Amino acid sequence: MKTFHDIENALRDYHWMVKEIARLKDELNNTNSSVTAKYGIEATLPKGNGTSDSTPREVIQRDRRHKTLRKFESKVVFIDDYSTYVEDDREIAVLNCLLDGMSIVSISQHLGFSERKVYSIKDDIVRSMKENAENAGNATIAG
Asked: Can you give the pTM of this predicted structure?
């Protein structure tokens, strides 16, 4: 079971995590040509001193990127799934602003609410997501 704070952080970080997911997927789909084996005459030529096989290093980096990608995807999917339970018009407006990456101050200025009111609405959104996740028995955010 993840905490109120975990959900709050995932909501705050949603905007940049979506961008990072796209970047990581692009990186994982591209192969590093320096890692591929050489064939023909190139395979028989001597290698320079001090060079090492970069394949193990590339495998470790790709594995780390893949783990990061899965963690970010699980958080984004959680927010996507449970944001559908937000039904109040003010909460929807604040939620959309948060998902777009706006700060509390900018949301306050944009919607004409006090910062305290925006914080209160955000807390209501997070509480609603947490309760609905608990009711569904699926409050999993990798963290």
From this structure: 0.76
